[in-house]
Write a structure and sequence with these properties.
Length: 254
């Protein structure tokens, strides 16, 4: 294990697998650029009892190089949301739990008291709700707060888009319903006009037939007002003798 600091606060290193004499030839693997060696180092970490303490140490002391608790520098920097020089970055990649790998939505930020913190009485910390792992880091907490802000904004935006789509859909359905209603009413009106025209035509035919019969007899159609003149096709009128009340008695077939 790459121990860079004194033994104060590093009691957990006594149980470090990488500190065992039989693993001393692997120490260089923790800073190697060879994939196989890095893989072996990580494997050793995942069998180590103090993995949580180790990765927490790396996070809280900004260890930005090497493998700590099975996490390499990329993982550590992503968790801290910093670049290789320790400056805070925002690249759209938010921290995940460095211990169990839980995604950002499982992480919560909080402010904790530091009884012996000197001029710093509180510190920003992050806790994983999946495994309970916790570490102190202002940059991690800032990144996670940003994640939730962006997520809320995105959700609000999506909800607004969904509402807009629903409103459009509703308006479209209302328009379709109105068009269908207009079509039904137009169809009903057309049928009514046609029916009334047919009825009128039948009435006209019947009246024409009746008038023809009375015209043959030279009598006025019963019910006509005295002085009524039958209109002819050439625009002239035919004056018909006033009806006699007893006409139908004399000609029952009329
Ligand atoms: S987790 Fe890995 S680097 Fe950390 S003490 Fe254990 S073996 Fe060493």
């Amino acid at each position: 294990m790459p121990v860079k600091r004194g033994s104060g606060g590093l009691d957990w290193q006594q149980d470090a697998l990488c500190a065992l004499p039989e693993n001393q030839d692997m120490v260089e693997y923790f800073f190697s650029s060879e994939t196989d060696e890095r893989y072996e180092a990580k494997n050793l970490c995942f069998a180590c009892d103090v993995r949580a303490d180790c990765v927490r140490w790396a996070l809280e002391n900004n260890e930005l190089w090497g493998i700590w608790g099975g996490r390499d520098e990329q993982d550590i920097r992503r968790t801290l949301s910093v670049d290789s020089e320790g400056n805070e970055t925002r690249r759209g990649r938010f921290p995940q739990c460095p211990y169990c790998g839980a995604r950002t939505s499982r992480l919560r930020t909080k402010t904790i008291d530091i009884p012996n913190g000197g001029r710093w009485r509180t510190a920003r910390a992050v806790e994983c709700t999946s495994c309970g792992f916790q570490w102190q880091s202002r940059s991690s907490a800032n990144a996670i707060d940003l994640y939730y802000r962006e997520r809320d904004e995105k959700r609000q935006k999506n909800a607004a888009v969904r509402n807009k789509i629903a409103e459009k859909q509703e308006a479209r359905e209302a328009r379709i319903r109105a068009e269908e209603r207009e079509k039904r009413e137009a169809k009903r009106d057309k049928e009514r006009i046609k029916r009334e025209a047919e009825q009128q035509m039948q009435r006209d035919k019947a009246r024409a037939k009746k008038e023809k019969k009375y015209a043959k007899l030279g009598r006025q159609v019963p019910g006509r007002k005295p002085g009524w003149k039958k209109p002819l096709e050439d625009g002239q009128t035919l004056e018909i003798e006033p009806a006699r009340i007893d006409l139908e008695d004399e000609h029952p077939s009329i």
